[in-house]
């Protein structure tokens, strides 16, 4: 299984004519409440891709319906705890042109502690993978404890912060970054320089750099695998990266070759950008099969 230490957020999405101004009280024209968070999205993508995924996370006890929604997706939520800390959430304003402005509150996502990590990893099987992003607390302990248990570790440093640079890199087997994260970690702006940096300083790991509609590059030792993106009409790129990660890991960890996994992940994320929304835009395995057989 993939054990995902990941955020669970409630996305409060408000449609507004313009972003609220200082001192202004603005009525929104519509509202939706959705399950979100990079962690939850990646667990949903893994489950839809057909992989056993165990999510480790925290929500407030009054929000148990979100845990139920994850269970309905087929995610093992044995280690999703209900606490008295408010669930992580995002207040999202969306304008008619599709621009957004977001206030994020980490809440219960920031309460994952050493005890939670040890308990979840105590149950791990030798060929399990550990996955985490940068939206939960205590990531350095997740990485080092997973390594201590000789589990394979995949890390997606999103959203990027300075603290990522001081994490124990040597505990990471697979790093998945977008162009912005790759530039910030390496301190370089040119793709050739970025790759040279990862080849040198991350030689112990495989590194995937996703490049939006320019596709993806994977550095494995001396080798570089390249995969162009599929040409689709993009309407909403939210969760493209989360979909990519879920489908890539699903294929790579337990089934196929890196080439095959990259192709499948590109197909899944191309489908996701043709659909509006985050979790609801993630395709299932049959949709991806059909897309690849067009
Ligand atoms: P993130 O969402 O994390 O910023 P990217 O924008 O790099 O990540 O997108 C992840 C993957 O999704 C890309 O490698 C690509 O395969 C796919 N993708 C993203 N945008 C498009 C697009 N406009 N058309 C087709 N595929 C896309």
TrEMBL record:
Q: Which residues form the Carbohydrate kinase PfkB domain?
A: 4-284
Per the record, a Pfam family?
A: PfkB
Instruction: Output the superkingdom of the source species.
Output: Bacteria
Q: InterPro entries of this UniProt entry?
A: PfkB_dom (IPR011611), Ribo/fructo_kinase (IPR002139), Ribokinase (IPR011877), Ribokinase-like (IPR029056)
Q: In which pathway does it act?
A: Carbohydrate metabolism; D-ribose degradation; D-ribose 5-phosphate from beta-D-ribopyranose: step 2/2
Q: What is its EC number?
A: 2.7.1.15
Kindly state which reaction or reactions the protein catalyses: D-ribose + ATP = D-ribose 5-phosphate + ADP + H(+)
Ligand binding (substrate): 9-11, 37-41, 135, 242
Q: According to the record, how does the cofactor bind? A: Requires a divalent cation, most likely magnesium in vivo, as an electrophilic catalyst to aid phosphoryl group transfer. It is the chelate of the metal and the nucleotide that is the actual substrate.
Summarizing activity control, the record says:
Activated by a monovalent cation that binds near, but not in, the active site. The most likely occupant of the site in vivo is potassium. Ion binding induces a conformational change that may alter substrate affinity.
Binding positions for K(+)?
236, 238, 272, 275, 277, 281
Cofactor(s) of this protein: Mg(2+)
May I ask which residue range the UniProt record assigns to the signal sequence? none
Q: What is the role of the protein in this entry?
A: Catalyzes the phosphorylation of ribose at O-5 in a reaction requiring ATP and magnesium. The resulting D-ribose-5-phosphate can then be used either for sythesis of nucleotides, histidine, and tryptophan, or as a component of the pentose phosphate pathway.
Under the subunit heading, UniProt states: Homodimer.
The UniProt entry's sequence similarity note says: Belongs to the carbohydrate kinase PfkB family. Ribokinase subfamily.
Name of the molecule in the record: Ribokinase
Q: Which organism's genome codes for this protein?
A: Fluctibacter halophilus
Tell me the lineage of the source organism: Bacteria, Pseudomonadati, Pseudomonadota, Gammaproteobacteria, Alteromonadales
């Amino acid at each position: 299984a993939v054990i995902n230490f990941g955020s669970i957020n409630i996305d409060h999405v408000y449609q507004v004519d313009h972003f609220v101004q200082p001192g202004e009280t603005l009525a929104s024209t519509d509202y939706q409440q959705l399950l979100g968070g990079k962690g939850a999205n990646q667990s949903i993508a893994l489950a839809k891709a057909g992989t056993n995924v165990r999510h480790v996370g925290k929500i407030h006890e009054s929000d148990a319906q979100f845990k139920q929604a994850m269970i309905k997706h087929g995610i093992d939520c044995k280690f999703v705890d209900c606490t008295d800390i408010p669930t992580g959430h995002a207040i999202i304003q969306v304008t008619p042109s599709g621009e957004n402005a977001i206030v994020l509150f980490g809440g219960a996502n920031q309460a994952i502690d050493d005890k939670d990590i040890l308990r979840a990893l105590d149950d791990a099987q030798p060929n399990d993978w550990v996955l985490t992003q940068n939206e939960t607390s205590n990531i350095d302990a997740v990485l080092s404890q997973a390594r201590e248990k000789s589990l394979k570790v995949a890390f997606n440093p999103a959203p990027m912060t300075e603290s990522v640079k001081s994490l124990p890199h040597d505990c990471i087997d697979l790093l998945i970054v977008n162009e912005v994260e790759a530039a910030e970690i390496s301190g370089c702006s040119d793709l050739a320089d970025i790759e040279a940096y990862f080849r040198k300083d991350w030689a112990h790991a495989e590194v995937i750099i996703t490049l939006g509609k320019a596709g993806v590059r994977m550095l494995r030792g001396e080798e570089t695998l390249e995969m162009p993106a599929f040409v689709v009409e993009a309407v909403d790129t939210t969760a493209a990266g989360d979909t990519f990660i879920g489908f890539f890991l699903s294929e790579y960890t337990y089934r196929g070759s890196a080439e095959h996994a990259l192709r499948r992940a590109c197909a899944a994320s191309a489908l996701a950008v043709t659909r509006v929304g985050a979790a609801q835009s993630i395709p299932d395995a049959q949709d991806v099969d059909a897309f690849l057989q067009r």
